[in-house]
Amino acid sequence: DRQVHEVQSYMGRLETSDKESVHLVENELQARIDNIFSNLERLEILSSKEPPNKRQNAKLRVDQLKYDVQHLQTALRNFQHRRYLREQQERQREELLARTFTANDSATTIPIDETLQYNESLQSAHRGMDDLIGSGTNILQGLRDQRVTLKGTHKKILDVANMLGLSNTVMRLIEKRAFQDKFLMLGGMAVTCVIMFLVVQYLT
């Protein structure tokens, strides 16, 4: 929990960092987030070994921490994507301003209206890509959250089943349903990624 709060505080440095140091801040944040994910995996194993009367609360606490860290990971990726688009637009503007044209060279004459129209279309495409990728990121995050929820629900069902002494046939049916849900989730993630890739290819 302390590490999550430290990452949340450290996120504020992203907006105030200059171009030279923002990459270092992003790398530091990613390293801290990866470390928290690793610790949460160990906590999840330990929580499963708690006594039955404490296991449920421990599992809920770990799931809440996972959700908080996944939210921080999404925020970091969104910031990196916005920074990439800003840097790309700045490079394009610099390249356009750096081009030189002679007064008598008709081959290098660029109609101002067409240039402005192209620039507006490019910015519109970038905004569309930004919105699309942001939506795709939210969809993927939702799918990951559903996976965590399904995994937790699956474990709870198995615990209840063990307590009630259900038959092996019922247990196998529960396992099969959880396996099918996992493939449906993975299929949805794959379709979303393919759609995002095709749209990005088309717009660029």
From TrEMBL:
One Gene Ontology CC term in the entry: Golgi apparatus
Residues spanning the membrane: 183-203
Lineage, top ranks: Eukaryota, Metazoa, Chordata, Craniata, Vertebrata
Keywords: Acetylation, Coiled coil, Endoplasmic reticulum, Golgi apparatus, Membrane, Protein transport, Transmembrane, Transmembrane helix, Transport
Subcellular location: Endoplasmic reticulum membrane; Golgi apparatus, cis-Golgi network membrane
Coiled coil (UniProt feature): none
Family named by the database record: Belongs to the GOSR2 family.
Alphabetized Gene3D superfamilies for the sequence: 1.20.5.110
Molecular functions per Gene Ontology: SNAP receptor activity; SNARE binding
Annotated organism of origin: Sapayoa aenigma
PANTHER family, per database record: GOLGI SNAP RECEPTOR COMPLEX MEMBER 2 (PTHR21230:SF1), VESICLE TRANSPORT V-SNARE PROTEIN VTI1-RELATED (PTHR21230)
GO BP annotations listed: intra-Golgi vesicle-mediated transport; protein transport; vesicle fusion
Protein role: Involved in transport of proteins from the cis/medial-Golgi to the trans-Golgi network.
InterPro entries in the record: GOSR2/Membrin/Bos1
The protein's name in its UniProt record: Golgi SNAP receptor complex member 2
Domain of life: Eukaryota
Topology of the protein relative to the lipid bilayer: Single-pass type IV membrane protein
